[in-house]
Amino acid sequence: MSDWTPLSKAFKGDIVTPSDSDYATSIARWATNANRNAKIVAFVKDSEDVSLALKFVKANKLPLAIKGGGHSTAGGSSAEGGLVIDLSRHVNKVKVDAENRLAYVGGGALWADFDKATIEHGLAGVAGTVNHTGVGGLTLGGGVGWLRFTFAASLASLARANMFDGSSAHGLVIDNLVRVTIVTADGSIRTASSTENPDLFWAIRGGGCNFGVVTEFIFKLYPQRKTVYAGYIVFPPPMLEQVVSVTKKWWSKGPDKKEGIAHFLTRVMLFYNGPEVDGRAAYKAFFDIGPVADMTKEIPFEALNAVHNPQLPHGLPTYLKGVRATKPSIEVAEKAFQALIQHTEKRPDMNMSCMFEYFPLAKICSVANDATAYARVPYGNVLNIIRWTEDTEENFKYARNAAGEISNIVLEGNTELASANNTAYGNYDHEISVDDTDGELAIDKAKVLFGDNYPRLQALKKKYDPEVLFSKWFAITPA
Ligand SMILES: Cc1cc2nc3c(=O)[nH]c(=O)nc-3n(C[C@H](O)[C@H](O)[C@H](O)COP(=O)(O)OP(=O)(O)OC[C@H]3O[C@@H](n4cnc5c(N)ncnc54)[C@H](O)[C@@H]3O)c2cc1C
After folding, report:
1. What is the DSSP letter of 161?
2. Is residue 125 part of a domain?
3. What is the pLDDT of residue 421?
4. What phi, psi does 98 have (nearest 5°)?
5. Which end of the chain is more exposed for a tag (fewer CB within 10 A), N or C?
């Protein structure tokens, strides 16, 4: 057992060990299968505390994890027998500089804090669509959200992405990141932006927790109306073909910059960044085919990223599997729906969903692939979420196989791609295991995720974290 005294002497935050009454809540994660028995949870107060904790971890050769919002289902923010640097208790504030349209956000803040603080000033930024997720993990992996803003893209890049939206589009959270304060593996507190440590700034925009502990993010904000139109419409299963057909038409015309859909096959979440009357007009084709339930309405902006919350409570074992789809497809939707029905009949104790995100992608793809570490592809995310109650290996395996089967249906529907393989969004899929471009089994999953950006990331890993202190999420091999 290590002696914590050297750490606790100078440390300003709280240290929690297994004998403390708040230990169980301190190691609890959104998905209970991600809970691990840490030896110590260090609730840091500031960057200096983070620096102390990192030095302590190195001196004692402890496994390390960083925790923001705690939503990694793969245990990315947990450390069995190790030390967790937890930013959520103290490093969670959001300050808004309304004049300069900037938000200063603690590395352990939640998106709910961000949405609430920014809209008070009539401003908003791109944020996660489930507001109890953390700003930290979601941002560092790329970050997709409902909002998108007008963007003057180059003609070449628009041509590349014009199947989605020709004039204005959606950006990733990292595309709106201005600067970070980050504590790197050697314990140094650095700032990174386009002008300060630009190589580090490049790496953290998509490179995840590979390069350090971010204690502050600074994001660009944009004027935002106080209400938006959003909610679910529901169709009976026999209408699936009609629903996807309407979705295909909506998608192929290039959705307006105010629109976006999260498609759960027969349950569809509509979003329109405007008043209800305009939203209903924009989605008239969906209403014309006759949903059996209509829960859409004009809601306060800060309620938008809470619409999914009731379906996604804390405290259940969970398996997440992401893939990407090139287009809406009736055949894929029907096969995926059948698979979901079959698995649900076999395992009624499991809650299974498959969500197709139809957020216009032009802005994401108009940023050059090598402008940030994030590997950009002009395809929409598909996310399988499977949740159950009893945390057993058998249940985990069942969920993993079922999610894999549905994901393969989606991949096989990407008929225009030379290979059925296409990598998923790293924050939706921690197990990317596709073959690499040479057709060989990928041993280094970070290599698959980052593609062409990997060699540069490897060089930066060697510069900033040669001993691979930060080994969670997609750990980059230094080279
Ligand atoms: C219900 C749900 C909804 C989701 N919705 C979206 C969505 O709308 N858009 C989207 O893009 N993704 C979404 N995701 C995926 C999400 O981006 C990832 O789960 C992400 O890892 C969550 O970050 P977190 O801070 O909550 O998690 P954590 O488990 O705390 O952290 C995840 C990873 O990030 C690292 N990390 C966290 N904070 C920091 C920090 N400050 N500095 C350095 N490293 C840090 C951790 O070490 C860990 O490896 C969703 C996931 C879930 C479960």
Report:
1. H
2. yes
3. 63
4. -65, -35
5. N
Does residue 325 belong to any structural domain of this protein? no
Beta bridge partners of 387: 318, 351
> pLDDT band for position 163 (50/70/90)?
very low
* Same domain assignment for residues 77 and 114: no
The pLDDT score that the predictor gives to residue 355 is 97
Q: Are residues 15 and 104 in the same domain?
A: no
Measured in whole angstroms, the distance separating CA 456 from the mean position of its chain's CA atoms is: 23
**Atom number of ligand 1 nearest to Cα 31:** 53
User: How does pLDDT run across 397-422, given as a tens digit for each residue?
Assistant: 999 999 999 999 999 999 888 765 66
Q: Are residues 72 and 160 in the same domain?
A: no
**Do residue 43 and residue 14 come from a single domain?**
yes
- Closest-lying ligand 1 atom to the alpha carbon of residue 72: 29
Residue 148 scores a pLDDT above 80: no
Average pLDDT over residues 360-387: 91
Indicate if 61 and 125 belong to the same structural domain: no
Residue 237 CA, ligand 1 centroid: distance in Å: 32
Q: How far apart are CA 247 and CA 333, in angstroms?
A: 11
Q: How far is the CA of 255 from the centre of ligand 1 (A)?
A: 28
CB under 6 Å to ligand 1: residues?
30, 65-72, 76-77, 87, 107, 128-130, 133-134, 136-138, 140-141, 143-145, 209, 213-214, 312, 427-428, 472-473
Q: Token digits for 226?
A: 């106080």
Any idea what the CATH number is for the domain that residue 24 is in? 3.30.43.10
Is the pLDDT at 157 greater than 60, yes or no?
Answer: no
Range(s) of the domain holding residue 80: 5-86
**CB 239 within 8 Å of CB 337:** no
Q: Is residue 21 part of a domain?
A: yes
Rounded distance between C-alpha atoms, residue 372 and residue 141, angstroms = 11
Q: Which of 223, 252, 281 is the last residue of a domain?
A: 223
The whole-number average pLDDT for the span 431-452 is 69
For residue 108, the domain's CATH number is 3.30.465.10
| ipTM, two decimals | 0.99
Within a domain: residue 258?
no
Question: CA–CA separation, 119 vs 99, rounded Å?
Answer: 14
Distant-in-sequence contacts of 391-394, Cβ < 8 A, 24+ apart: 391/32, 391/33, 391/317
DSSP 53: H
CA neighbor of 203 nearest in space, from 134, 250, 140, 290: 140
